[in-house]
Amino acid sequence: MPPVDETPRKREPYKLRADPNRQRRLPVTLTEEETEVLLAQVNPGSALGLRNRAILAAILGAGLGVSEVVALRPRDINFREGTVSVKSGKPRVIPVDGHTLAWLSAWAERRKGLGLTLQQPFFCRLRTKGVGKQALPAGGVMTTRNLQVLLRRLAEQAGLGKRVTPRTLRHTYASRLLARGFTLQEVQELLGHSDIASTLVYAQDNPQALKAKVQSHAPRAELAAHIAALEEELAALRKAAGL
Question: Taking the CB of residue 160, how many other CB atoms lie within 10 A of it?
Answer without folding.
Answer: 19
